[in-house]
Amino acid sequence: MTENLPENLQIVYDGECPFCSEYLKVLRLRDAAKTVELISARDTHPLVEEVLKLGFDLDEGMVAKVGNNYYHGADCMHILSLMSTPSGVFNRVNNLIFKHRILATLLYPFLRFGRNMTLRLLGHQKLADT
């Protein structure tokens, strides 16, 4: 089974966003790749610099790097739902919704809006402003 797994799964997310942090805590990705690395976009890290140079807006969504492929925003939610284990109610519901690219694309702007409003209410700066 592990021979079909990608070597690395790296996820760049806003470490100050309570939704992003909790989502990645409860999403069971242990079996999704040989190694899984969660990287806060507010930290200095080579992958943060790389995704910014590639033009990804981290205020608009997290980025998953799977092997040599990048997934941003709704596409990131979609690929993570496909990679997560089906154990637990959260993962089953997440997979049910986000395994469909169209649903992920339609719902993601609402999730992003909620995230941005929450960060503003908590007094956190946008990533681009840090």
Q: Concise description?
A:
The protein has helices spanning 18-26, 46-53, 74-83, 89-98, 101-122; strands at residues 8-13, 35-40, 63-66, 69-72.
Topology:
Blueprint: E1 8-13, H1 18-26, E2 35-40, H2 46-53, E3 63-66, E4 69-72, H3 74-83, H4 89-98, H5 101-122
Parallel strand pairs: 1-2
Antiparallel strand pairs: 1-3, 3-4
Report on this model:
It is built from 5 helices and 4 strands, in the order βαβαββααα. It has helices at residues 18-26, 46-53, 74-83, 89-98, 101-122; strands spanning 8-13, 35-40, 63-66, 69-72. It has a 4-stranded mixed beta sheet with strand order 2-1-3-4, with helices on both faces. A hairpin with a 2-residue loop joins β3 and β4. The mean pLDDT is 85.
Fraction of helical residues: 40-55%
Quote the CATH topology.
Answer: Glutaredoxin
Q: What is the H/E order? A: EHEHEEHHH
Total domain modules: 1
Classify the oligomer.
single chain
* DSSP summary: helix tally: 5
Name the structural class: alpha+beta
CATH-scheme architecture? 3-Layer(aba) Sandwich
Q: Percent of residues in beta strands?
A: 15-25%
Defining key terms:
130 residues; 15% strand; alpha+beta; 45% helix; 4 strands; globular; Glutaredoxin
